Amino acid sequence: MTTVVKVGGSLEVDEAGPLIAELAGFDGPLLIVHGAHLQLDRLAAELGHPPRMVTSARGEVTRYTDRRTMDHFLMAYCGLVNKRLVEALRRQGADAVGLSAMDGGIATGRRRPDLRIVEAGRSRMLHDNHAGGIERLDPSLLRLLLDTGRLPVLTPPAISDQGEAINVDGDRLAAEVAIAVGAERLLILMNVPGLLGDPADPSTLIPRLGREQIDTHLPLARGRARVKLLAARRALEGGVAAVVLGDGRGERPLRHALDGAGTWITDPEGRPLAS
C-alpha cells in the first residue's frame, strides 16, 4: 500500500527533524512530494526580486512566475530544499532520491503565459508567466524507484510541451502522483492542525469530510486551504481512498496523522484507514 506524503513549503527543513525521522523509518512504500515557498521567498528577496503573490480570476492565490522568478524557483525547490531533504533522509538511513517533476517527463503540462488576475477589484492581465497546469503524469520512473526500495523525493516544476520549466501547484502534483502510482492515501502536511473553520482558531478544526462536502467548504476556504481542498477532491476522484490535511509539526506528526488527527477526507465519509 503506497502512501504519498506532501511536505508543505511552510515547514522549515531544519525544524522538521521528527517528521524526517518518521519518513525515513516508514514501513511500506512511500513517496514524498515537497514545496519550498518560504525558502523561495527568502532567496528572491535576498536577490532583489521579492515574490509577487496575486489573486487569479478564479479566486486562487498564486505566485506570478516571470523568467527571473523561475530561475529562483529552480534554485530553491530543485536545489536547496530538495537536496537538503535528501541529505537529511539519507542521514537517517533512507535510500532517498531527489527529483523534480521535469525529470524523465514525470509531469507534463501546458504553460499559461498570460495570467488574468484581480487587483484592487479590477481585472487585469499579466504576461510572461512561467506557470501552468499538469496534463499528463508518467509514473514509470517513480515506480522503478519504488520497486527497487528507494524513496523518491519529488518537487515542482513540471515540464511544458515546449520543453520549458513551469511552476505547478505542489498539492495538485501530489494528488496526480498519488493517483498515478495507485496510492491508497495522500497526506498533506502543513503548519496548521488541518482544515479550520476559522484560520485564526485551531479549535475550529474540521475532523472529517466526505467528498460530497468539499464543494460546500470551497467558498469559505481562504488562501492555500482552497487549493488543498481542490487537490483532495482530485485525488479522491482519481481513486485515492483517503486524503489527510494534517499538521507536520510536533514530535510524531506522521503517526498522529495516520492515527486520525487532522482533517480526514474520504469518499464516502468514513473512518481513517488502518495504518
List the helices and strands and how they pair.
Elements: E1 3-7, H1 17-24, E2 30-34, H2 37-46, E3 53-56, E4 61-63, H3 67-91, E5 96-100, E6 107-111, E7 115-119, E8 122-126, E9 132-137, H4 140-147, E10 151-155, E11 158-160, E12 165-166, H5 170-180, E13 185-190, E14 208-210, H6 214-217, H7 224-237, E15 242-247, H8 253-258, E16 263-266
Parallel strand pairs: 1-2, 1-13, 2-10, 5-10, 6-11, 13-15, 14-16
Antiparallel strand pairs: 3-4, 3-7, 6-9, 7-8, 11-12, 15-16
Helix content: 25-40%
Give the overall shape. globular
Q: Which band does the percent of strand residues land in?
A: 25-35%
Order of strands in the sheet with most strands:
5-10-2-1-13-15-16-14
CATH superfamily: Acetylglutamate kinase-like
Per DSSP E runs of 2 or more residues, the count of β-strands stands at 16
How many structural domains are formed by the residues? Answer: 1
CATH second-level architecture: 3-Layer(aba) Sandwich
From the structure provided, what is the oligomeric state, counting identical versus distinct chains? single chain
Count, helices: 8
Secondary-structure-derived class: alpha/beta
Low-confidence stretches: 270-275
Mean pLDDT: 92
Radius of gyration: 18 Å
Q: Tell me about the largest β-sheet.
A: 8 strands, mixed
CATH topology: Carbamate kinase
The CATH class designation is Alpha Beta
Distance between the termini: 10 Å
Order of helices and strands: EHEHEEHEEEEEHEEEHEEHHEHE
